[in-house]
Amino acid sequence: MFRRTYFVKPRLMIKYILFSLTGVILTGLCVYVALDMSFMHSEYLAQISTGELMVIKTAMRWSLVWVLLILLFAYFIINMFLYHHLMGPLYAIEKVLRMVADGDLTVWMPLRQGDELREVADTLEEMVGGIRRRLQTDMKKVDDVRQDLKKLSDKNPALKGDLDRLSETLSTVGQEFKLPR
Known about the structure:
This protein is 73% helix and 0% strand. The protein is an all-alpha fold. The longest helix has 52 residues, at 50-101.
């Protein structure tokens, strides 16, 4: 089960990125307002002419815009990287859970180097392995019971039909599961 999907859960990814970028933009606006307010109430800048103050404010605005654009780009790249290392494993876990729900107990979790949620994936694999071992043990017990029913059937011909039907019913136990060979 190697992952070939690069943009898992695109709607969630867009929400995640927009939420993160909104935080950066709001922070930039707060910094702008704080700087603008400090310009308006500065004693040192009161001595500068209005034209010079406008030039300084314009330079400050453009500097802030460039810094904000660089931060937005960097934040976008970092969030994409983090998103993939978090959502990729969540996507794989969801896929494995669906397979287990369909009865496939041969699944495993292929995580990449640096992926998050490794403990959750390991626990999921342990859970599936535990279910698989218990099912195999129970199926062995069912086979033992079927053999005992066969012996009883051979010893008591009057019950042969009933015991054979019971044995046939028991033979279907665990058939809906996919187990490793």
